[in-house]
Amino acid sequence: MAKKSRYAEIADVLAAEIADQPAGARVSSEHEIAARFAVSRAAARAAVQELEGRLLVRRVRGAGTFVNRRIDYVLSQRKAPSMHQTVREAGGTPRTVVCDVRRVALRGELAARLEQPEGSEAHLLVRQSYIDGLLSGWAQEWIPLDLLPELDAAVHAVESLDSILRQMCGVSPVRAWCRVSYSLPTPEVAVGLESDHTRPVWLIESLSRDGDTGRPVMCSSTWSRPDSTRIIVELDGPWK
Amino acid sequence: MAKKSRYAEIADVLAAEIADQPAGARVSSEHEIAARFAVSRAAARAAVQELEGRLLVRRVRGAGTFVNRRIDYVLSQRKAPSMHQTVREAGGTPRTVVCDVRRVALRGELAARLEQPEGSEAHLLVRQSYIDGLLSGWAQEWIPLDLLPELDAAVHAVESLDSILRQMCGVSPVRAWCRVSYSLPTPEVAVGLESDHTRPVWLIESLSRDGDTGRPVMCSSTWSRPDSTRIIVELDGPWK
DNA sequence: GAGCATTTGTCCGTATGTATT
DNA sequence: CAATACATACGGACAAATGCT
């Protein structure tokens, strides 16, 4: 058996203790860990950084280190393209905060995907999403203007965009196309995620259509923190 | 504008220099960086670790730090379930090394997915995959026995399993189901990937069927190093 | 708002261990 | 075996963000 470094041993002990604690619980400070295991603060720090790398904790400068939990976020054609529902299915509590609602002109790929003329206007909704109170995602969502002229009032009354589209527009959104990748966020995205712009994050690009008519109803780009969600993409063929 | 830490500044300078260099090129050692920027080795080390976090370099103890490149590995129902072809489409050079070929009894989910009776035998092929000479993945692949009794000889003659199935079995494999996630590898997998078992890696589970008959022809679990591939999953609905 | 203690972030210098060449 | 390079570790210091008084 390979000999382990001291900080890795400490990390394993802490990881086992963390496993029994609820999300959000406070983890010992670096000073306390150093004193408890009789090591320097550098070694204690390395152990906590190890836990951060395993996505077991989140650290906040000046505040402390806290137990983290990821939820399984499953993307599939069989499932509704709804963040609120997907999170609830995984046992989490979703919440969204509107950052901005405005009208923008659709260009290029975005216009094509929504099947709107180049330069036509659409709603742009920018939101942060939280899971169990922790910041998880930052999303831009485009919706054709004629589908719902008064989006602003609606999104403040009902958090789930899927519900709004179903109840106010009479459509049944289904995920028609989706692309998931994992790369560095732009500085703007990093701000929205309160994340370092040098750490990779999930990018989920998605197009929803009305399940009955096939009409495009929503296009979105969602960036998601890897420490909040374990993204799972299920791709289904014509069989099964 | 936020003030940057010294190591982040150094990392940015090095990142810009690395961008012009070919994959595999040697990066200055920590000592050289410390001397060049007049900082301690700890700060130089932090800068190089930053680059490692951005997946721009790979570090080998005792050997040095080297420029890394990722390729886009695109998973989609429209594309053949072939590692060799997917890598070549992204501009890389694929290679596979057989670690083990043996017969195993199919159990549970695996048997169900291949539509074989519980406990029936199948080939198990264990391979490492390399991209441009760098270790990229470690895979277990299960193939029904009756499809190709002499798998052992075939995989040593032809590297691409997709080609073998097409040419020797007369099937046209298509990706019928696939699940992609990102989590910590088991110790066994970490060994196969020559990776730390405390760093998350990709897990791609896949089922291939014959495009003509719909018969299951291959089931696989592939673990892939995030520093070798940028996994992209495309999900297509009935419209498009 | 100001002040203070706590906590993580960064950095210095030094030393030793371990893997590769 | 020797030189090189990364890995771990010690102890100390100050900066920056947070939370409370």
SSE inventory with pairings:
The structure is a homodimer of 240-residue chains.
Chain A (H helix, E strand, L loop, with lengths): L5 H14 L6 E2 L2 H8 L3 H13 L3 E4 L3 E4 L3 E6 L6 H7 L4 E12 L2 H6 L7 E11 L2 E11 L6 H7 L3 H9 L3 E11 L3 H7 L7 E10 L5 E9 L4 E8 L4
Parallel strand pairs in A: 4-11
Antiparallel strand pairs in A: 1-3, 2-3, 5-6, 6-7, 7-10, 8-9, 9-10
Helix pairs in contact in A: 1-3, 2-3
The first copy, chain A, binds a DNA duplex (21 and 21 nucleotides) through helix 3.
Shape of chain A: elongated
Tally the structural domains of chain A: 2
Q: How many strand elements of chain A?
A: 11
CATH topology tier name of the largest domain in chain A:
Chorismate lyase
Biggest sheet descriptor of chain A: 6 strands, antiparallel
Oligomer: homodimer
| Gap between N and C termini of chain A | 44 Å
Spatial order of the strands in the main sheet of chain A? 5-6-7-10-9-8
Summarize the largest interface: chains and residue counts. Answer: A-B, 37 and 38 residues
What is the level 1 CATH name of the largest domain in chain A? Alpha Beta
Kindly name the structural category of chain A: alpha+beta
Radius of gyration of chain A: 21 Å
Any guess at the CATH architecture of the largest domain in chain A?
Answer: 3-Layer(aba) Sandwich
* Number of helices, counting only DSSP H or I runs of 4 residues or more of chain A: 8
Whole-number mean pLDDT of chain A: 89
CATH superfamily of the largest domain in chain A: Chorismate lyase-like
Element-by-element helix/strand order of chain A: HEHHEEEHEHEEHHEHEEE
